[in-house]
Amino acid sequence: MYWEKDIETLSFEKLKEYQLIKLKETIFQSKKSEYYGKKLKDIDSSSINSISDISNLPFTTKQDMRDNFPYGFLTVPLDDVVRLHSSSGTTGNPTVVYHSKQDLDEWTNLVARCMYMVGVRKSDVFQNIMGYGLFTGGIGFHYGAEKLGVLTIPIGPGNSKRQIWFLKEFQVTTIHILPSYALRLYTFFEELGVDPKKDLKLKTAFIGSEPHSEEIRKKIELLYGLKAYNSYGLSEMNGPGVAFECQYQDGLHVWEDNFYIEIIDPDTGKVLPDGEEGELVITTLKRDAMPLIRYRTKDLTKIIPEKCKCGRTHRRIDRIKGRSDDMLIINGVNIFPVQIEKTIMKVPEVGDNYIIELKKENFMDKVFVKIEINENTFHGTLNEIEKLQKKITEELKSELGINPVVKFVESGSLPQSEGKAVRVYDLRNK
Amino acid sequence: MAYQLSIFVENSPGKLERITKILADEKLNVRGICLASAGEFGIVKIIVDDPDKAYDKLKESSFTVSKRNIIAVRIDDKPGSLCNLLTILSSNKINIEDCYGVSVAYNNSALMIVEVEKYPDVESVLKKNNIETLTDKEVYSI
Fold it and tell me: In the CATH hierarchy, which fold is given to the domain comprising A5-325?
């Protein structure tokens, strides 16, 4: 059941010692970067005597990464970087993460460890229905699966009928999929005369990239007749493979040999004891090209202090409860409302009152942008409005990769917000 | 030059009623009306006897409204006369953006309300071809 038994079951004390050594190495390595070279100028790693001394170090935020674009966080010569992953960057500089060969090997190993943990073996067939490209979800699992020696089908998302054809023809046992897409995909089976429980050999699904409830997991398990495991990751910390459920499906083990985790009060920054809910803060312990110290994930969760029945000593975090910022996760893609706003406001004919509505349609997230017509630029033809509608839709599609429905409404018809504008109406769970 | 009002409306019950109510309250008489819909919203084009007043009143009620120049063309009430008009316009490369007929019984004639891109052109072209257009005053009292 263990991919690396020694590490996965290392005693709590030994794990802390190991983390301390790795933290010191990380501080040393990070100071080679322009950003941490300045930021940690006065920090001497010999003054770190226990892993909890980490709370004396400053936090790192997404904004710090943007402000130091492109290479402010890089600790190795560019020649040693073999890949980068990047956010879309509509709101300014994107957040870019660089990987050396060693980083990719570590990442791949962690994903393999996750998959092995829930029983995926060489004899399995794996259909990777997650997006490839700059998004880390697909590619991260791809290499992990190949490392395990699993036959991997790099199909990516979409084209539901073809998905089902592959699932059936190749007797796929394991899938990696957005939970919302798993529910949507199910609606195509009947038409094709395929019964997922009888005609397929599915036994394991990895679901992640978007917050989902226990009810959704249960539903996916019931519909497909498989076990679904929650996967947590973020591109700043490689991507998938940061934390993962074991066979007991009771919280996600964070790989503490690679990541040091803290839960903080998002308002005060104070470290909270295990068991209390707050913002997850992660420090990379093995990153070579781009170590990150006390990175604020903005994800809200808690650390589960109790030992897990599986025998692994790496602490678990609870299912992500939400965000301490306003980031939206739309079909697995991370988007800030301000990105939508910037895209809309680039179009001069648009009035300045708008709202974003998020709804579920056929189990998938759908974005509705309602914009008040600008009476100062309105010339009175239908044509101009239709053109404008098309233009905004295209802009949002190309800038953010979402396919919104843009609607114009009469001026003054949207709620006028007093104080901080309420622009986002998330109706997905209603 | 005469103009009509072009009003943005969401396609939902009561929208058109609200516009006509405002006009009725102000004793404004509707001379012609036309609707173009694009599903969830549309444009109402309306000719009234006092367009400036109607424009102000609609604005006050926060409608998005725009003034659009139009030309009211009198054509004979007989087969082929609309075709004749369109032939004249097209052979002079005048594109119609929008048009509609308002009254088929106007002094034994038909009346076409036409929006084009080139206004001075259209007037001289029509004049040359002996096509009668209505004066502003006539338009508003159709």
Answer: Rossmann fold (3.40.50)
Mutation target for A interface from B64, B66, B99, B115: give the one with most A CBs within 10 A. Answer: B64
Q: From residue B3, how far is each of A184, A363, B32, B96 by CA, in Å?
A: 52, 49, 12, 15
Residue B72, beta-bridge partner list = B113
Domain A333-426 sits in CATH at 3.30.300.30
Which of B10, B38, B68 lies closest to A409 in CB terms? B10
Answer positive or negative: Cα dihedral of A165, A170, A172, A175: negative
List the domain range (segments joined by +) for residue B93.
Answer: 71-140
Residue B60 backbone zone (phi > 0: left; psi -120 to 50: alpha; other: beta): alpha
Whether residue A27 has pLDDT greater than 90: yes
**What would the pLDDT profile of B73-118 be if each residue is shown by its tens digit?**
888 878 898 899 999 999 999 998 888 887 656 666 778 788 888 8
What Rg do the C-alpha atoms of chain B give, in angstroms?
A: 16
**Per-residue pLDDT tens for A165-193?**
999 999 999 999 998 889 889 989 999 99
The string of pLDDT tens digits covering residues B39-60 is: 888 899 999 999 999 999 999 9
Domains contained in chain B, number: 2
Beta strands in A72-216 (DSSP E): 81-86, 96-100, 125-128, 151-153, 174-177, 204-208
Length in residues, chain A: 430
Positive/negative CA dihedral, A131, A133, A137, A138: positive
Nearest CB to B43 within list A374, A382, A411: A382
Instruction: Name A244's Cβ contacts closer than 8 Å, sequence gap at least 6.
Output: A114, A117, A118, A229, A230, A231, A232, A252, A253, A255
Interface check for B69 against chain A (CB to CB < 8 A): the answer is no
- Tell me: do B22 and B55 sit in the same domain: yes
Among residues B69, B87, B103, the one where a domain terminates is: B69
The answer to whether A242 and A254 are in contact (CB under 8 A) is yes
Domain ends where: B69, B92, B115? B69
Rounded Cα–Cα distance for residues A349 and A371 (Å): 11
Instruction: Judge: B64–A413 Cβ closer than 8 Å, yes or no.
Output: no
Residue A430, pLDDT > 70, answer no
Q: What's the complex ipTM?
A: 0.71
